[in-house]
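Summary for the funding panel

The consortium committed to producing paired sequence-structure records for every protein in the target list. Below we show the first two records in order, beginning with the earlier of the two.
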Amino acid sequence: MSAVGTRIGTIRAVRIVGPGQEFLIDDEPVDIFIDDGRISDIAPAGALRPRGEVLDGNGAWVTPGLWDNHVHTVQWALATERVALGGATSAAEAAAIMSAAAPLPDGRKVGSGFRDAMWPDAPSLALLDGATGPIPTYLINADVHSTWLNSAALRLEGFASPDGMLREQDAFEISRRLNAVDPERGDAAVVAAGDRAASRGVTGLVDFDMAWNADAWPRRVAAGFAAHRVEFAIYPFDLTRAISAGLRTGEFHEAAEVPAAGRGLIRVGPLKIISDGSLGTRTAACSHAYPGDPENFGVLTVPPAELTELLTVATGAGLGVAVHAIGDRAVTGALDAFTVSGAVGTIEHAQLVRHADLARFGRLGVIASVQPQHALDDRDLVGRHWAGQTSIGYPLGALRDAGVELRFGSDAPVAPLDPWQAIAAAVTRTDDDRDPWHPEERLTREQALQASVRTALRPGEPADIALCGFDPLSASGADLRAMPVLATMVAGRLTHGV
């Protein structure tokens, strides 16, 4: 296997699956030829003389490079140094885990990934204080819409809360502060995370970090980052700054001096707007109240008129939009704003959708940027907290049947950054020994793969390619999740190899 960084001229003896396969007359191995970062020719194996560096596929399957369309990059990268709380089954257990945890070099304890919506006990300030004492301690919900702090952390951050819980904007502010590590430390974590992503066939992602990414990504690329392509988002608090800087969605954005491997990797992404809360925090804006809390219909964090105004301003400035909308009221409000403003872009999550809104999605051309693994992670939460809702939960098949373009992501670190998990979740709708959850919403393997790529394997397309050990179109759900990725390349340059 050639070394990472090598520019490949010929991929020999591979089987194409996914977009591009439709142009082949059979499934026999082919050779793929690459020039200047693009596929220049595809021919039956051995029919043409190899040129340039040769990567021997030995009959492996190749797909277009995979994309994760929803990632919080720095938070995902820093998750490796935070205490994992996904296995905590109660507030008491989570507090005990943090009690035993070692502080970070800055003296704080940080844990992430807890899911209190199914706990038998409630988080409390007294419980966490008793377990952690004077050490500032932060626990981040898996959905990032709430955080649980002890008294020392609340004092340090200048917040007050009777139970230690901060929700929505206050929780986001805590995450922003925890993610605002010094650039050297943060960039090193992002480099390591990029290598992990490449090992799963990832050639691009959309970065939704709540930060001014227009400086961070050019800095990382200038320092040598080259693992995958990036589209970085802008948040409303930076919208005026972005417009003044002339940022426009889809345009390349890089420093004046860029290593050859990093050229053309970074583009301006959308304006990201969070219009409601989440299921896990019981703040997603829904038509029906949450059980046991008849006044709680969730929250619309951006009023309808303000949402429409934001979309209108962004559209006039050449920015696409990505509207976080989880509950059905939020999805309806987002579609209303798209209708009035003429904006283009995505609705992120779309976890509860009214039947009448399916056709609106399709007619407006709004893309549904969804995270299939969330349906499986949340199926028990839905049974408890959305049992009375009448809209469609976690639709995939229904959206696709309505003519809506789907794009898959992970929302990492909410779910692991691994497109094969998303594909497996979409085609099986289960990841344990239970029957598929709402099997009518399953997609075919071809449809799931299409939602995970941005290019096709045909001449003229970018040579963003993943080599796979199993056939993605016939692999079982378990094999899809464990998909061996033999090699990944971006523009013909090897970013991962085994």
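The next record, for a separate protein in the list, is shown here:
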Amino acid sequence: MKQFDSPTDVLPYFSALSYDALMKARHENHALVPAQRGIYFWFLREEGFEKLSQKLQVILRPPQHTIKIGDASLVYYGHLGTNANLRSVQRADNLKYYFQSEIPHKPLEYSLECYSYLSCFRKTISGLLCDDILAEQETVKSFFHDYLLIYYMAYDAITEEEGVEARKAAKSDFRHINRAIYALGSSSIGILHHAVKDALVYDDSGPEVRFIVENRRYFAEGMTLIKIRQKYQLDEEAGSDLIEPRFFFEGRKSLMSF
């Protein structure tokens, strides 16, 4: 269950990981996402950086600041089911929303309800590709299908006691992963660590890096909600609670400042 004893174990683990271990973010791969708590990793293929630069220049600087498998660079990672009881394992299904432009049991319609299903990660990708997040989800879906891959590290647990141990193991590994990736970024000397104007620098050493990309996502979210309010004749505050906050998260969970 536990993968790492220290941050020094992280890079060798991923170096030994084959490219085939990464799942393509496609509808047919939903069933392959484990239904256990665990840590997920999003990798972006090199060609995706150029495609993601239609609204805001996204650059890779420098490539040694992250984990790379084949032509895919780690751009985002997080954990599921580590902060609650065993029933939270069911929330791993949320990861499947990333794969598609259809919500389980119903199409992704142009409404506040369907908008609320989109993750911060998907909203950010959407904001970098288009101005109206919901209206252009087919474009976003195509981008996910063509350029994003996922790796999921599952932590099995059946009983409540095993669930406690699984949460501890996942939290411990997540800390080791954070530290290992942070060490990649801080080990270089003389490298520019800050965003240039209107561009997203790959590492997130400076809070202005995240602020730039979050402004882009915030703009797209605002445009989307304005149109939803107009369509359904909602008040000016409708959906405001669904807008992701703009601030610099601690823990360096996001490598592309998503």
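Regarding this second record: The mean pLDDT is 77. The beta strands are 23-24, 37-45, 57-58, 68-69, 72-80, 102-103, 106-107, 148-155, 199-200.
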